[in-house]
Amino acid sequence: MKLLLIGVIAVLGIRLYFSIVKRSEQERLGAIYAHQVIDLVYQIVVVLDKNYTVLDVHYPSRLEENQKLIQIGDTLEIGKHHPLPSDFKTLFKKGAFRNKSHFDYFLNGCFFELKVIQNFQGNIICLLKDSTKAKKEEEKLSKLNVDLENLLTINNSELALKREKFKTIFDKSSDAYFLLDEGLKISIYNEKVEQLFGRCDTVLFYKWIEQNSPRNQPKGGDSLALFKSMKETCDLQEELRFEWLFKSKSNEDFPSEVSLTRLSISDHILYFMIIRNMVGQKKIESELRKNLEREKELNEMRSKFISMASHEFKTPLATILTNLDLMELTLKKENVPSDDRMNRFMDRMRSESTRLTILMDEVLQLGKIEAGKTPFKPIKVDTFLFISDYVSEFKRRSSTERKIKIAFDLTQKEVWLDVNLMEHVLDNLLTNAIKYSEEEVQVQVSTSEEGLLIEVIDRGIGIPLSEFSQLFDSFFRGSNTNHIQGTGLGLVIAKEFVELHNGIIVCETKENKGTTFKVVIPF
């Protein structure tokens, strides 16, 4: 309607413009006004007679002279480069411009909008406007609209997929879910609620709690009053977890864990509640407690047996060794001639008795470790004096002629050690180094800001790489040590004693090249 009104105004202006024969000052002002109206609506106005000759032409005032391609007196046949359609005459005769608000066409790389009017004198008035810029903007807007529609379609599809996934997760969850409004009215709940409790026939959650909970909770307190108290605590903390006893739809009590969360969404308060059935977990916990108690009893029985057996074995072993000493003393007193075979038998008896005594001591010691009864009494010791004295005493006790080389690099003189336990650790490492090597053994002792480092190095048979992971297992002995006596418990005990100091023991070895044990005790 607006466009039609503007068109009418333009036509009236044009008629006014071309009907003036004698231009008085008042008429001249009217013509100027008509030009201004036309400039607002169309850029170029061309008036043709019945023979398609240009009678008059109007250009906007901003147009340069070299851009004014149509002049008065031109005909459409002269082939000039002008913005009218090349088949204008044909289109006009066919009535292509009738009953149309405007006619759009593309010419010389530009879009044009043409309005054709025939006045009562038979003249043809052509109103032209270059619509290239508007067309391009329209195309951009159209493309943007398509892109937006595509994006909206994609987002809607993604949203629908996410909604479906959420609904599936919500409904098929193994836990029961409730979404409650600020007044604790039930908004939605999932399928698990009906599976556990039956159909929810109320929208009031407090009423639902009364229907599906025993009158009192196991730890005391009326269920309804207690739940209201939990809700108030949740309002303060925004999230709360607690145990709750519910009644199932078969009217059986079952324990659960409840998670209640307070949510603020778009100025609304919601409560999201998760109910997790703990029957299976409680059964597992009960079984675990029973198994732990049983294991504790078995460990105590084993410790008692090991202790008793070790002590019982020690008495006959001590008797055997004492009698061996008495036999040797008696034979010497009676001047019985020495017999090599008899001496071998007696040496074997003494060796095996000593071996069994060591085994019983280590088994007893391992039993104490497993029972957590190993005493740990660290004292501050001078590292240099402790290692030096220990190595001297070890050589005297073991009657070894093997050379033990000691090297010190101490930046800190004193360290906290349980002397008895650390001597046991060093006993094991030095004994192994001497047993499994024929060359000298090295002991390197150093300190740093982190702690004390003791290294025991030999050039012996080493440990097969395939068996390295079993090194600290009870009763493990390397496949290359079958000809050498041992219990397979020494390293296990040494490791436990080092860990009582919060330290670590590690091994570096290469078969037939040697072994290095490193003990690190933190300050």
Describe what this molecule looks like in 3D.
With 523 residues, the protein is an alpha+beta fold. The protein has a 5-stranded antiparallel β-sheet with strand order 2-1-5-4-3, covered by helices on one side. Helix 9 packs parallel to helix 12 and helix 11 runs antiparallel to helix 12. The longest helix has 55 residues. It starts with a helix and ends with a strand.
* Spatial sequence of strands, sheet with the most strands: 2-1-5-4-3
**Largest sheet data:** 5 strands, antiparallel
Termini gap: 96 Å
Counting helices, strands and paired strands, the structural category is alpha+beta
Average pLDDT metric: 81
Output the number of helix runs: 12
The shape is elongated
Query: Over the alpha carbons, how many angstroms does the gyration radius reach?
Result: 53 Å
Considering DSSP H and I runs of 4 or more, what fraction of the residues is helical? 40-55%
Number of E strands: 17
Give, in order, the helices and strands.
HHEEHEEEHEEHHHEEEHHEHEEHEEHEE
Unreliable sequence segments: 1-6, 20-34
- Beta fraction of the residues? 15-25%
Short account of what is shown:
46% of the residues lie in helices and 22% in strands. The chain is α+β, with helices and mostly antiparallel strands and 523 residues long. 17% of the residues are buried.
List keywords for this structure.
alpha+beta; 5-stranded antiparallel beta sheet; 12 helices; elongated
